[in-house]
Design brief:
Layout (H helix, E strand, L loop, with lengths): L9 H13 L10 H13 L5 E4 L6 E7 L7 E6 L18 E3 L2 E3 L3 H13 L1 H6 L6 E6 L9 H10 L6 E4 L8 E4 L1 E10 L14 H21 L13 E9 L9 E10 L4 H16 L1 H7 L4 E10 L2 E2 L5 H10 L5 E3 L5 H8 L3 E3 L14 E3 H20 L1
Parallel strand pairs: 3-6, 3-7, 7-15, 8-14
Antiparallel strand pairs: 1-2, 2-6, 4-5, 5-16, 8-13, 9-11, 9-12, 10-11
């Protein structure tokens, strides 16, 4: 008789696991420990134990799981557990309850990217039944949505291990296309410190917003220049680095010269370190051109800068072994690059693990109200993992 907790049908297993995962509200400002504990219980039922890596707050954790021999280099299936907020979005149902309609599974995180995690967990029984000669690792992280934060402590631990994995598949939604590259991102916050005065004597004050506007204008000027320097890499849908101001806060009242203004800006660069190079140049310009002028008007005025997000670009060689394997497992001959960022670049840069991005669902569904993933996509992903298992049996 089938176990009600553990259905024998693979599609039902995937559905049940995805329903469980969606049921945990793991928006990035909340703990993911209940979800991690649930995954650990599921794995324990199968006789598998993972390695939990807890953050400094004790409220977040990643999970590293090895199935198969531990004395040989293996292949990684990686996914994150956090999701973006639902506040302000018009959902037709509870976003943290899985709903199935017309072959589509709706709920926050179904595409990005609990669907992939559910498939990997659903395939653990097949991994255990197979006589793997190459191990399969599951890397389950947190806080990807706020700058690929949670995977970093886990990768630092992985990098210490004597045996390095052969490669990693990061299951972000690509409709199971093989993605070999993505842009890097560097985000900076500039805080302008002005001097408040009554607006009737505005020249006696230092207007933080007006100086911030000069920075924004410079960012825009440089963005246009980047767009003109188009890359020859036709694999990108936006074939140049991008730069923009995204958030501005400042001012208290119409009749007060604003004494503070914050500006958040980002660059998404094609080159491995280009995004940071672009923002560093802007910071240097502001420190040289705007900061001294503000300070000359009042010694306490100026600009403070802080990094708010950073991850490098991914650029895996098209002829790399992990790319060839991904194409074979996916049954495709093509590859592509994307503008959105993933943890894949950190697997490559922090742990020297060659990586590709491949997972079920479409990026167009990520972060949207009534987010969904098609069941057919999840089954296609399960077929990919099934072929990976067969590959790891052959060795």
């Amino acid at each position: 008789m089938p176990n009600p907790i553990f259905p024998s049908s693979r599609p039902d297993r995937i559905r049940n696991l995805l329903a469980d995962l969606v049921g945990f509200d793991t928006v990035s400002d909340r703990t993911n420990l209940p979800l991690i504990a649930h995954i650990e219980s599921y794995l324990a039922f199968l006789g598998v134990k993972g390695e939990r890596i807890v953050d400094d707050t004790g409220q977040k954790a990643s999970l590293w799981v090895t199935i198969g021999p531990e004395d040989r280099p293996g292949l990684v299936l990686s996914g994150h557990t956090d999701v973006v907020p639902v506040v302000g979005q018009d959902w037709s149902h509870d976003p943290f309850k899985l709903v199935e309609r017309d072959g589509k599974l709706y709920g926050r995180g179904t595409t990005d990217m609990k669907g992939f995690v559910a498939v990997c967990l659903a395939m653990v029984p097949e991994m255990l039944e197979a006589k793997l000669t190459t191990p399969i690792h599951l890397a389950i992280s947190y806080d990807e949505e706020i700058g690929c934060v949670g995977v970093r402590p886990m990768l630092r631990e992985v990098a210490k291990k004597k045996i390095k994995p052969l490669g990693a598949f990061i299951g972000e939604p690509t409709e199971m296309k093989v993605i070999i590259g993505h842009k890097g991102k560097h985000g900076v916050r500039a805080t302008f410190r002005g001097l408040a005065r009554h607006s009737s004597i505005a020249p006696d004050g230092v207007n933080a917003i007006e100086y911030a506007a000069e920075l924004i204008t410079e960012i825009r000027r440089r963005a246009v220049k980047l767009a003109a320097a188009r890359s020859n890499d036709s694999l990108y849908d936006v074939p140049h680095s991008t730069l923009l101001t995204s958030i501005v806060h400042g001012g208290a009242a119409l009749n007060i010269v604003p004494d503070t203004c914050t500006v958040d800006f980002e660059c998404r660069g094609i080159g491995i370190t280009e995004s940071r190079e672009v923002t560093d140049a802007i910071v240097a310009w502001a420190k040289a051109e705007l900061g001294p002028e503000m300070k000359a008007r009042h010694p306490e005025c100026g600009i403070d800068f802080e990094e708010i997000l950073d991850y490098p670009a991914l650029d895996t060689a098209a002829d790399a072994a992990i790319v060839t394997l991904a194409k074979s497992l996916a049954g495709r001959n093509d590859h592509a690059k994307v503008a959105f960022g993933t943890e894949a670049s950190l697997f490559a840069s922090m742990a020297d693990i060659p990586s590709v991005v491949i997972g079920p669902g479409a990026i167009a569904q990520a972060h949207t109200p009534d987010e969904f993933v098609a069941m057919a996509e999840l089954e296609k992903c399960a077929g990919f993992v099934e072929r990976l298992i067969a590959h790891c049996v052959k060795g």
